[in-house]
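Appendix B, Record 12. Input sequence as logged:
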Amino acid sequence: MIVGMNHFTVTAEDETKTLDFYTGLLGLRVGPRPDLGFAGAWLYGEGPQALVHLYFGRPVPAQRTGVIDHMAFTARDLRSVKARFDESGTKYELRQQAGAGTWQLFCHDPNGAKVELDFDASEQP
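Logged structural output:
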């Protein structure tokens, strides 16, 4: 019945910092979004599907993450991404998954949402 993940939605406390994180640091791009009657943005990767939806001007829920622990993205060019994180001073944890060898970079967006970037085991940090 389910054929894939559609998107994650983040309630953004600071529009500028949130957009800088997802577009500047992670490399997503702002793309088409219908007029939904409230402020926000839809962010895209390389394909035609919006991956992250942002809400602007809404109160942040008291329970930040609820039962969802994190969002994960398949990524590439680990060395370049790591350099961008280092240059920006954004804290992260980089580890190599036992067995598969996948490189996992964990960080938090400006709103407290945990983000995981997964890189092929053949990449080098």
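The chain is about 20% helix and 30% strand.
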